[in-house]
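Field log, afternoon session.

UNIT: design team B
ACTIVITY: writing a sequence onto a fixed backbone
BACKBONE:
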């Protein structure tokens, strides 16, 4: 495939191979953009912004709705492409394609609701005889950078709100997974988006990403990815708005009055979807000591029943990780935890990029898996004796994206809501729960700002205040 600059599909001097992680077969190639091509994309976006800022809301909304329709028409093909490039199962691929369409629909609706408020100037003595209001104006060129694990829907969370807000976009997808994103570019053009408003440049983060983030003509960076790269971007970006959607090692708490069967059903999904490569994957499972044995009796058979393997086989539950090397790192992280005293209750064996779904018990806090983001098909189980200890364990993390609690006791639920240091609390649900309209994002090393079209649009617009002398 080629990259998209100003409505033209462009080749590069060098190519990047996009691989199926299950067998390393080449699915396609994309160009690696040169610095001159990055400059071309920025100039194109400058022209795109001049068009977008003048486009009325109903037209922006119509383009977004049409994009959603086109994504829906192509769900099966896009789902398959996502399965091939990410390694997610066919069902996970279809689900992501469907959610991307939904995210564009939400953005289409929000495009019609961007407004300000009147300002009570006369609250100050020198504001007597003044009247006015503020409006929201598009911020300018938005640079979107996405990770490999949800290429299409995370792009939709940046591109959709940017169009809704009247911005132009330069989008750099992850090098491992750019294909569905380039298809999305075709559909945006077909939906009637002015060609210079969407520029999709492929190439590595260290070259293309760096150039974009540092450029002063770009007013906003919307980044989803790892905490290390996010912190680096914040240093490079200078005076521009940044949204940072970063990683986590999310925890779920199982209280002694929990519905254990319901919790085990959801952990089976939350811990292993997309081979655990989800920012809100359920990584830590904290179980009240009074129900520990019963909960493990529910959980272990469910995890052992998961079928890991070729993601393009409809019967597979857990596909490969993104590369063999990263799968080998996971194997090493499991070995380190076990050497430090953890017990491996099931899974953990590796074949190529496929890691068998694993359950570890009593993982030492100082090991990699005890304190960092695993981003792998595994959960780490620990016991606790009361709600205070559970909350302390949840908060004993550099991250704070989402957390879950299973309980029938409203006081426990509210203590958790008040005390957990996270961006989202899920009651009787795993932390992996997300719908695309909700405000989504984290605290601490999990990031800054919130996505979900309404909230992303706030960050892609500036307030302009107006005063009239009467
Ligand atoms: P990553 O290595 O941080 O890469 C993310 C993106 O940043 C890629 O497009 C990458 O390009 C680019 N990049 C790398 N270095 C850069 C630089 N110096 N300047 C600008 N861009 C740069 O993350 P990943 O491994 O793809 O994804 C996994 C991470 O994403 C996990 O930590 C996960 O938790 C997080 N995540 C967070 C959310 C959320 O909403 N909070 C959602 C999904 C994933 P290349 O691909 O070319 O290296």
């Amino acid at each position: 495939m080629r990259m998209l600059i100003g409505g033209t599909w462009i080749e590069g001097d060098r190519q990047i191979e996009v691989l199926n992680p299950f067998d390393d077969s080449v699915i396609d190639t994309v160009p690696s953009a040169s610095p001159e091509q990055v400059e071309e994309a920025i100039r194109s976006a400058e022209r795109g912004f001049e068009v977008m800022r003048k486009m009325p809301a109903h037209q922006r909304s119509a383009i977004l709705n049409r994009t959603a329709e086109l994504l829906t028409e192509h769900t099966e093909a896009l789902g398959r492409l996502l399965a091939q490039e990410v390694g997610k199962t066919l069902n996970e691929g279809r689900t992501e394609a469907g959610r991307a369409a939904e995210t564009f629909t939400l953005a289409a609706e929000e495009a019609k609701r961007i407004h300000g408020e009147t300002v009570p100037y006369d609250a100050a003595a020198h504001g007597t005889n003044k009247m006015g209001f503020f409006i929201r104006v598009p911020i300018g060129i938005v640079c979107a950078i996405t990770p490999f694990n949800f290429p299409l829907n995370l792009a939709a969370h940046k591109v959709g709100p940017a169009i809704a807000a009247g911005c132009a976009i330069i989008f750099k997808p992850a090098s491992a997974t750019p294909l569905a994103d380039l298809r999305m570019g075709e559909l945006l053009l077909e939906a009637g988006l002015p060609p210079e408003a969407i520029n999709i440049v492929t190439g590595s983060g260290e070259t293309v990403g760096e150039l974009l983030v540092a450029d002063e003509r770009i007013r906003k960076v919307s980044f989803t990815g790892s905490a290390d790269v996010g912190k680096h971007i914040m240093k490079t970006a200078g005076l521009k708005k940044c949204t940072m959607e970063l990683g986590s090692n999310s925890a779920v708490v199982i209280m002694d009055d929990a519905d254990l069967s319901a919790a085990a059903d959801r952990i089976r999904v939350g811990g292993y979807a997309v081979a655990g490569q989800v920012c809100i994957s359920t990584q830590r499972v904290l179980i009240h000591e009074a129900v520990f044995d019963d909960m493990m009796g529910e959980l272990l058979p469910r995890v052992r029943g998961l079928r890991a393997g070729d993601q393009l086989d409809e019967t597979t539950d857990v596909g490969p990780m993104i590369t063999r090397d990263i799968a080998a790192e996971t194997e090493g992280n499991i070995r380190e935890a076990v050497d430090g005293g953890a017990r491996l209750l099931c899974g953990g064996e590796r074949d190529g990029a496929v890691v068998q779904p694993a359950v570890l018990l009593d993982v030492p806090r100082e090991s990699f898996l005890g304190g960092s983001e695993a981003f792998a098909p595994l959960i780490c189980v620990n016991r606790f004796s009361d709600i205070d200890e559970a909350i302390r364990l949840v908060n004993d993390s550099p991250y704070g994206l989402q957390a879950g609690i299973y309980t029938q006791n409203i006081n426990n639920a509210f203590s958790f809501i008040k005390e957990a240091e996270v961006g989202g609390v899920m009651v009787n649900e795993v932390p992996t729960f997300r719908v695309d309209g909700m405000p989504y994002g984290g605290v601490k090393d999990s990031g800054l700002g919130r996505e979900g079209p309404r909230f992303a649009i706030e960050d892609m617009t500036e307030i302009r205040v107006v005063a009239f002398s009467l």
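LOG NOTE: Residues 145-150, 154, 172, 174-176, 204-206, 209-210, 213, 224-226, 229, 232-233, 245-247, 279, 373, 375, 401, 447 surround NAP (CB under 6 Å).
NEXT ACTIVITY: expression trials, pending approval
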